[in-house]
UniProtKB/TrEMBL annotation:
Organism: Kribbella jiaozuonensis
Stretches assigned to the NlpC/P60 domain: 168-284
Any one GO molecular-function label of the UniProt entry: cysteine-type peptidase activity
Family: Belongs to the peptidase C40 family.
Domain of life: Bacteria
Pfam families tied to this protein: NLPC_P60, PG_binding_1
Alphabetical GO biological process terms: proteolysis
Biased composition (Polar residues): 1-22
Name of the protein in its database record: Peptidoglycan endopeptidase
Length: 284
């Protein structure tokens, strides 16, 4: 047989053998080599995700951190309530957040983090006690006073009709000391328990309660904060005024249009009715 014919026959035989012996199905999968490169599609997907995020597409939520998402959904009231304390944010009714909790703790309130009506009410009282405008919201001046008060553990100041429990305690002491001296004789220029004149009596009582007053009724009037009759509390001072506006007598207000005083020679210290409308009230 010629060489060419042999080669042709051999090629056909090999071709038939390959077609019949090739594995199929799962057998084929076992012998197949993986030619895909996953790194490239993943990189392409990452590029696509970034592109969508920059373009404002659906991938934006994937790249956004939870903190940024919550900040973006906060209301203005919540944003103010989450501002730092050193920034002294303007806080007002219905604000909420951890900074509101700090204010509530400083005001000795239960810290629920909500700037409600109770917080407004106590804050107004705090502001009035320090001589600030009682607005009921946190401004720069109120922040300064509140942080100072919290640092020094002193809540209320000395101003206002209902400034603090400390002021109330002082007035209670005044009334107790005033009553102890009932029956002490009147003595012109007297400042001791042997005998009192009007300002000697008030000066002695206030000193025993913890506060020193000037000697005369006029000086005592000048040393006090003048308040209205409606605002006067038992333990405050009541001054009697002449037609020209001068002060000629002083006593300790006992409430209910009554006072403790050392009135005149022959009459000992006693509680009596305020007999005139020409009076003024003063508070330490």
């Amino acid at each position: 047989m010629p060489v060419t014919a042999r080669r042709t026959s051999l090629s056909r035989a090999v071709s038939q053998l390959s077609s019949t012996d090739r594995p199929t199905g799962r057998t084929l999968a076992k012998h197949r080599r993986t030619t895909s490169k996953p790194a490239a599609p993943r990189a392409a997907a990452a590029v696509l995700s970034v592109g969508l995020a920059v373009a404002g597409g659906a991938a934006l939520s994937i790249g956004t951190t939870p903190a940024t998402a919550s900040a973006a959904t906060m209301t203005a009231a919540q944003q103010r309530g989450h501002m730092s304390i050193p920034s002294r944010p303007l806080l007002r009714f219905r604000d909420s957040g951890p900074t509101v909790k700090y204010v509530q703790r400083a005001l000795h309130l239960g810290p629920d983090g909500y700037f409600g009506s109770s917080t407004v009410r106590v804050l107004k009282k705090f502001q009035a006690s320090w001589g600030l405008k009682a607005t009921g919201y946190m401004d720069k001046n109120t922040w300064g006073r509140l942080t100072w008060a919290a640092k020094h553990k002193v809540l209320y100041g000395k101003y206002g009709a209902s400034a603090s429990s400390g002021t109330t305690t002082f007035r209670a002491k005044v009334l107790r000391e005033a009553a102890k001296l009932k029956g002490t004789p009147y003595r012109y220029g007297g400042t001791t328990t042997r005998g009192f004149d009007c300002s000697g009596y008030t000066g002695y009582v206030y000193k025993k309660a913890g506060h020193k007053l000037p000697r005369t009724s006029r000086q005592q009037y000048s040393a006090t904060k003048h308040i209205s009759r409606k605002a006067a509390k038992p333990g405050d001072l009541v001054f009697f005024r002449s037609g020209g506006g001068g002060v000629y007598h002083v006593g300790i207000y006992a409430g209910g249009n009554m006072l403790w005083h050392a009135s005149k020679p022959g009459r000992p210290v006693a509680k009596a009715k305020i007999w005139t409308s020409s009076v003024a009230f003063g508070r330490i």
